[in-house]
Amino acid sequence: MFAIEFEADIQNGVVKIPEKYSQLENRHARIVVMVSGQGSQDPTETSLDFTDCGIKAFEGRDGLEIQREVRDEW
To answer: Does the pLDDT value for residue 6 go beyond 80?
Structure first.
């Protein structure tokens, strides 16, 4: 596997591969798209919600107190 990098405009959902990479024609490729500017348009995709998670080992204990105990060990 090898990697190439170039910049291109996306027009109607199509990215034109530059002529100098013609060897890629009719090949399978993994595509990574990096867009400058704002991040994800849908903030729910990137936000994490752990409100429904329960850790039984910490039940009935204060999270800050647990952190203080761990830091005291350092």
So the answer is: yes
Q: Is residue 34 part of a domain?
A: yes
**How distant, in Å, are the alpha carbons of 31, 40, 41, 57 from that of 36?**
16, 11, 13, 42
* Total count of domains within the chain: 1
Q: What is the DSSP letter of 29?
A: -
* In the predicted structure, residue 33 carries a pLDDT above the cut 70: yes
When computed from its CA atoms, the radius of gyration of the chain, rounded to whole angstroms, is 24
Q: Is there a domain that residue 43 lies in?
A: no
Q: How far apart are CA 39 and CA 50, in angstroms?
A: 22
Contact status, residue 68 vs residue 61, Cβ threshold 8 Å: no
What does pTM read for this prediction? 0.43
